[in-house]
Write a structure and sequence with these properties.
364 residues, alpha+beta, six-stranded mixed β-sheet, five-stranded antiparallel β-sheet, 24% helix, binds adenosine-5'-diphosphate, binds magnesium ion
Length: 364
């Protein structure tokens, strides 16, 4: 898909399973909304196809697709009350009033707005308005609901509540949700499957766990969750592949055969996977710059001997917080390390699921 000379979607290929909560995740401008709008029929594709249970969707007008959309801006009618907003489509279709009442009641119950029928839109909070918009979108029982940053206008607390509720609603309704967000935490909270996009290109498709544990490239590693990015080297010695981290070498027995050679690499280690070794004399050498006690966990900010900084999350020990300036040794299980080429384009570890490998392998 291009807008004039600007190609905004390139090689976008993915499947959506029935009843799946699937999320398009990526920074602003990466093409999430455009992808959604093509599925909805609000935007045309220059090439390629979109099929729904084998049927070519691009030939079906938007209003005849079994798809409905919820936008960030609620697009509600301010001069109508909640009931009439939700009933709007049914009234247009001249559905008998008794049935309208039943269906509106059921939809409002689903979104937690029983008893709000008579309220006017301007008497509602942002969260309630979005609930009305969702009730209106599900009233016709669409097979697929497209949601484009629907919680973007809500404050953080309301957003967190709605995330959990939306996921529950999706399960109860048995409707496939295709969700768009730039917020990785939101994507992790709600999704069965996440499609990570950047610059109109899919970076990786997978479950939240797969993306967190085995990101396909450095972009995915840093976009999803927090991680320590460490300049390192691979060294092959006596048939063993060693990863040279600051002040310490660990054996990596899971590097792809063709990639295991002497080279510069980028290692990525999650803060909770670096473990402070007690009374140790070897490990990744680091010096504590700061310790932040957060109850259950303590965050340590450290630097390595090469000057690179890192963050460590440890369960708080009952008696001691490690003081600033202390030299410590860190351990890490090698299977928790991801190793990328020097450009960060490729994960060199075996068994990284990418594109729709996840689907082919039936992993879910
Ligand atoms: P996202 O939803 O991920 O933030 P969009 O799909 O809205 O991204 O936009 C992708 C790119 O396409 C952006 O560079 C945006 O400026 C451009 N774009 C989107 N819609 C139009 C349009 N109607 N005309 C021209 N450019 C557009
Ligand atoms: Mg958008």
């Amino acid at each position: 898909k291009s807008f004039e000379d600007n190609r905004v979607l390139k090689d976008i290929t993915f499947y959506i399973r029935n009843n799946e909560f699937i999320t398009l995740l990526g920074p602003s401008g990466c093409g999430k909304s455009t992808t959604l709008r093509i599925i909805a029929g609000f935007e045309t594709a220059d090439s390629g196809e979109v099929t729904f249970e084998g049927e070519n969707l691009l030939k079906v007008p938007a209003h005849k697709r079994h798809i409905n959309t919820v936008f960030q801006r609620y697009a509600l009618f301010p001069h109508l009350n909640v009931f009439d907003n939700v009933a709007f489509g049914l009234h247009l279709k001249k559905v008998p009033e008794k049935e309208v009442k039943e269906r509106v009641s059921k939809a409002l119950a689903t979104v937690g707005l029983e008893g709000y029928e008579k309220r006017y839109i301007d008497q509602l909070s942002g969260g309630q308005m979005q609930r009305v918009a969702i009730a209106r979108a599900i009233i016709n029982k669409p097979r697929v609901l497209l949601l484009d940053e629907p919680l973007g206008a809500l404050d953080l607390k309301m957003r967190k509540e709605m995330q959990i509720e939306l996921k529950q609603m999706q399960r109860e309704l048995g409707i496939t949700f295709v969700y768009v967000t730039h917020d990785q935490e939101e994507a992790l909270t709600m999704s069965d499957t996440i499609i990570v996009m950047k610059d109109g290109i899919i970076q990786q498709i997978g479950t939240p766990k797969i993306l967190y544990q085995r990101p396909a490239n450095l972009f995915v590693a840093t976009f999803i969750g927090r991680t320590n990015v460490i300049n390192a080297e691979l060294k092959v010695k006596n048939g063993k592949t060693m990863l040279a981290l600051p002040g310490y070498e660990v054996e990596m027995n899971n590097i792809l055969k063709d990639e295991a050679k002497d080279r510069k690499v980028i290692a990525s280690i999650r803060p909770e996977e670096l473990v402070v070794k007690k009374d140790a004399t070897e490990g990744i050498k680091a010096t504590v710059d700061d310790a932040v006690f957060l109850g259950l966990n303590t965050h340590y900010f450290v630097h390595f001997e090469n000057g690179e900084r890192a963050e460590i999350i440890q369960e708080s020990l009952i008696d001691s917080i490690i003081e600033k300036g202390t030299e410590i040794y860190l351990g890490v299980k090698t299977e928790k390390i991801n190793v990328f080429d020097e450009e960060g384009n490729k994960n060199l570890v075996e068994g990284v699921l990418n594109d729709y490998d996840v689907y082919r392998n039936g992993d879910k």
